[in-house]
Specification:
The complex is a heterodimer of chains A (506) and B (404).
Chain A lengths: L1 E7 L3 H12 L4 E5 L14 E2 L10 H17 L4 E2 L3 E6 L4 H14 L4 E3 L1 H7 L7 E7 L2 E3 L1 H14 L3 E4 L1 E9 L2 E9 L5 E11 L5 H6 L7 E11 L7 E4 L8 E5 L2 E5 L3 E3 L9 H14 L8 E12 L13 E5 H5 L4 E6 L5 H16 L33 E3 L4 E2 H10 L5 H7 L12 H11 L5 H16 L7 H17 L10
Parallel strand pairs in A: 1-2, 1-12, 2-9, 5-14, 12-20
Antiparallel strand pairs in A: 3-8, 4-8, 5-7, 6-7, 10-11, 11-12, 13-16, 13-17, 13-18, 14-15, 15-16, 19-20, 21-22
Helix pairs in contact in A: 1-5, 1-9, 12-13, 13-14
Chain B lengths: L1 E8 L3 H12 L4 E5 L21 H11 L10 H14 L6 E2 L7 E4 L5 E4 L2 E2 H4 L7 E6 L7 H10 L4 E6 L18 H19 L8 E5 L7 H12 L2 E5 L6 H16 L3 E4 L3 E7 L2 E7 L6 E10 L9 E3 L4 E3 L40 E3 L9 H4 L2 H21 L1
Parallel strand pairs in B: 1-2, 1-14, 2-11, 7-8, 7-9, 9-10, 14-17
Antiparallel strand pairs in B: 3-6, 4-5, 12-13, 13-14, 15-16
Classes of the chains: A alpha+beta (506), B alpha/beta (404).
């Protein structure tokens, strides 16, 4: 296999680079070890920062965020919901911080407006009555899954290729030049190589491991962040606590749910981050201060992501920079045809992609300039036509009643997936995301995919088994009605349907 | 204030069994429940212990593994006696069947896998057949695939085939406008009127088969008429394969048990939660039920706590602790990884609730069913057995207490 550019990593950065390169007419292939948005991208708040969060500590990052915020509202409108955001100063928070914040925002050029408390409570009725000042900023909610998908789809339509479920075993190095990579299909185990003139490492927290296979060293620190997903949309604006960034101080509305986060703990590896009880407790306690009663509301699930932090000098944690770096390994360690993009944040993914693509274009001698600032990403569409269905009558029946996911929409989402692994179906087709956590739709969705011949008999059972198991891992956040729901699902999947694993012997 | 010999809290399998036994003993009995029992969402087939075709072997292994299991409080003889009592009581409108020695049946799941079950309702009895089966699905019905079930069974050597019928044979109501009927309860109610149309639609297709399998939607109150009628018309045995709730087999069982309790002279107050209990020393004197208007006070000599586990609402899982909902008994097993669902109330051999130090908390309260600590019905296949056997035992203990 051959390509001009090999992009490693199917998060926002990798997909953004693919889109950018494709717009410049450069032939590119993206490989992702699991599913698109599997890593850090799919495990964040989905907050399109106005920059307000960083304005006191790092004005240049704040400015960068605001500029990108304005661009993405335009070009990635399909994934953005223009919610606006609150910065709320609660009684007991240092008043001087609010003043410093307002000054810094003014000098950074981030627009904000202080609003009356009565206005604030009218807009956000659940907000604490202990609020003393509220500033309105242009934060927004952005769907990270859709964002990656539209970047990838836009690129694919223009001829780029995307391979998921393919891991980079090692980079192919000849002398001091990277020539491509050895890839492994994680389902079949097949190993093959791809030749590329330039390789871009956008593997997020795994970037260090990828670079190491070429003998390059990237000093990355890992910061684990845990988030809670609430069963409802508890607010219509992003709500930020106006104080130095800490645990559980941002609540983001995302479609029908809300996300509270995050924590920040050093992590040793980028793999399988799990929320701990202490983190969840910290989130609930802090969140309770913003929205009284939050700790008792229904948490659908908790999850954790790993932030890759590139700043060897300063270490991890909130003190570390949220900036990013495009590393040209030719300069850094004399290895040609290879660059890495590290650090950064979802809000600045496009800028990271632009700078990486600039470097790649220079290496290839291509003079086309970046067009992602002005080219709108496509709205999500299906890649294959959905066959008309004469059987089911006039209205499409629902697969998921929690999120009103109808059959046609579900099948369209499924057909967009490169491969139908249980993980891809859960994440890519957004099954089992509502309050019932898949009790109904895992079974119903699996039956539908079997009927449509998209899953075999064994595939259908395996999907149900693995999807149920994935939804069972709830750990420390399990309480109240959510625990009842899970016990009901256990009754159905373990008893009625015998998907616990013990049935094979019968 | 209303007064009873026995006040049963909970209308699930355990509470209903207790009430039936108490009524047989001549105790004046009422069942009070916040809602429906969990059996209304489960499959309707009842198991004592999975893991082996001989449930008693599996049960002995289970108790050896988990000495705190509720089964450890009972002898096999008592469990058999309780099951026989249950089968005897439920005869008529919703009959259940078992093999000799209560050996487990092997029956197919809706996915074409297989499971064990000890007591089968009439609607699932023919599922144990080894002969060729025609699986029948309804076009457009989301919750069952005849083809999937048949493929699963054929993969392990059975001879099944699948077919589909149009839902037009179910369209009983007026003004449907071609709407797809997708709700299992709605289909069940329609079939009570129009099962003959279904039989006509299937006529000729069942030749050569021993049985026909359907999703579990063959009627509610009239389910025996539907099932037996189809069997007569089609010339084959008919059985149902339960999957998602709402569960018609579970609803039929619950309705039959409730009717049996009323016929036996018992009272049933369903839909209202118990909000508090009046305790004097180590005795419960009365409970307060949140009925509309003013709360209702119900006095009793003895009380049965059969309010269910986490699913039923008897055990409340909170952020920092687990608690028992009515008497605030300590719930053991909380937050020990992987055993969240074994959280429950610890009891002695008389089914009385125990404090952490092993002391009896209330002498005239007896616990039964999913409220008990130390077991997981869904991984063990032990839910119905524990419910029926501990429910029976609780009634016997309450009866003894009443005699003293």
């Amino acid at each position: 296999m051959k390509t001009a550019v090999l992009v490693i990593g199917g998060g926002a950065t990798g997909a953004g680079i693919l889109w950018d390169l494709t717009l410049r007419g450069i032939d590119a292939l993206l490989v992702e070890q699991r599913e698109l948005a599997y890593g850090t991208t799919g495990r964040c708040h989905g907050l399109l920062h106005s920059g307000g969060r960083y304005v006191v500590r790092d004005r240049s990052v704040a400015r960068e965020c605001y500029r990108e915020n304005q661009i993405l509202r335009r070009v990635a409108a399909a994934a953005v919901e223009e919610t606006g955001g609150f910065f709320v100063h609660l009684e007991g928070d240092a008043p001087v911080y609010a003043e410093r914040w307002a000054e810094a925002a003014t000098s950074a050029g981030i627009p904000f407006r202080e609003i009356d408390l009565s206005e604030a409570h009218r807009l956000e009725p659940l907000l604490s009555r202990n609020v003393r000042r509220v500033f309105l900023v242009p934060d927004a909610s952005i769907d990270p899954f859709d964002l990656v998908m539209i970047n990838a789809q836009g690129a694919i339509r223009r001829g780029a290729k995307v391979l998921t479920g393919v891991r980079v075993e090692k980079l192919l190095v000849e002398g001091r030049r990277v020539r491509g990579a050895v890839l492994k299909d994680i389902e079949t185990g097949e190993i093959y190589s791809v030749n590329a003139e330039v390789v871009v490492n956008a593997a997020g927290p795994w970037a260090g491991q990828v670079a190491a296979t070429a003998g390059s060293h990237l000093q990355l620190a890992y910061g684990k962040g845990t988030l809670l997903v609430y069963s409802q949309r508890l607010c219509d604006h992003v709500i930020n606590r106006l104080r130095p960034p800490g645990d559980g101080d941002i609540l983001v509305p995302a479609k029908t749910v809300s996300l509270l986060g995050t924590t920040d703990l050093p992590a040793l590896t980028p793999d399988n981050p799990e929320p701990t009880g202490d983190e969840i407790k910290a989130l609930l306690d802090r969140g309770e201060e913003l929205i009284p009663g939050l700790a008792g509301r229904r948490v659908l699930r908790s999850f954790a992501g790993v932030r890759p932090i590139y700043d060897p000098g300063e270490g991890a944690g909130r003190g570390a920079s949220r900036g990013f770096a495009v590393v040209d390994h030719e300069e850094a360690d004399g290895i040609h045809g290879f660059c890495s993009v590290v650090g950064g944040k979802l809000t600045t993914y496009r800028l990271m992609a632009e700078q990486a693509a600039d470097l790649v274009a220079a290496k290839l001698g291509v003079s086309e300039r970046c067009r992602t600032k002005d080219t709108c990403l496509p709205a999500l569409t299906t890649l294959a036509p959905v066959p008309p269905d004469s059987i089911e009558g006039k209205s499409a029946p629902l697969v998921c009643e929690c999120e009103l996911l109808d059959k046609e929409t579900f099948l369209q989402a499924v057909r967009r997936l490169a491969r139908l692994t249980p993980e891809a179906l859960l994440r890519g087709a957004r099954l089992a995301h509502g309050p019932c956590q898949g009790t109904t739709c895992i079974y119903r969705g699996a039956l539908l995919l079997y009927r449509e011949k998209l899953l075999s008999y064994a595939g259908c059972r395996e999907f149900m088994r693995r999807a149920f198991r994935a939804r069972q891992r709830r750990g420390e956040a399990l309480q109240g009605d959510q625990a009842r729901q899970l016990e009901l699902a256990r009754g159905i999947y373990l008893q009625n349907l015998q998907l616990g694993g013990g049935d094979d012997e019968l | 204030m209303m007064n009873y010999d026995l006040v049963v809290i909970g209308a699930g399998l355990a509470g209903m069994t207790t009430a039936l036994k108490a009524l047989q003993q001549g105790q004046k009995t009422i069942v009070v429940a916040a809602g429906a029992g969990a059996m209304e969402v489960m499959s309707g087939c009842l198991d004592i212990c999975g893991g082996d075709d001989n449930p008693w072997l599996a049960l002995r292994r289970l108790v050896a593994e988990k000495p705190a299991h509720p089964y450890a409080l009972l002898s096999e003889e008592e469990i058999r006696e309780a099951l026989a009592f249950f089968v005897e009581q439920i005869k008529g409108a919703c009959p259940y069947y078992h093999q000799s020695g209560f050996r487990n049946f092997r029956i197919p799941t809706a996915l074409g896998g297989r499971r064990r079950a000890c007591l089968l309702p009439e609607g699932q009895l023919a599922a144990a057949t080894e002969g060729p089966v025609l699986a029948v699905g309804f076009k457009g019905y989301r919750d069952f695939s005849a083809e999937l079930m048949a493929e699963g069974m054929n993969r392990v050597g059975y001879r099944w085939q699948a077919t589909e019928v149009d839902t037009c044979c179910l369209q009983g109501g007026e003004g449907d406008g071609g709407r797809i009927c997708n709700n299992s309860v709605e289909i069940a109610l329609r079939l009570e009127r129009s099962w003959r149309l279904l039989a006509e639609e299937l006529s000729g297709r069942t030749r050569g088969f021993a049985a026909a399998a359907f999703p579990a939607v063959l009627g509610l109150d009239q389910h025996l008429t539907v099932k037996r009628g189809l069997e007569k018309s089609l010339g084959v045995s008919v059985f149902e394969a339960p999957a998602l709730p709402p569960s018609l087999p579970g609803m039929r069982l619950a309705a039959s048990l409730a009717a049996r309790i009323r016929r036996g002279g018992g009272d049933l107050l369903q839909g209202f939660p118990v909000v508090s209990a009046d305790i004097q020393g180590r005795m419960c004197r009365r409970i307060i039920v949140a009925t509309p208007g003013s709360p209702l006070s119900i006095g009793g000599k003895n009380f049965i706590l059969a309010s269910g586990g986490i699913l039923g609402g008897g055990i409340l899982l909170e952020r920092e602790r687990a608690s028992e909902a009515v008497f605030n008994f300590p719930a053991s097993g909380f937050r020990r990884q992987a055993s969240v669902f074994q959280t429950g109330v610890r009891v002695n051999r008389r089914m009385q609730p125990l404090a952490a130090d092993g002391q009896v908390i209330l002498e005239n309260v007896f616990c039964a069913g999913r409220i008990l600590a130390g077991y997981d019905p869904f991984s063990e296949g032990s839910g119905a057995g524990v419910a029926v056997a501990t429910g029976y035992r609780a009634a016997v203990e309450a009866g003894r207490m009443a005699e003293q």
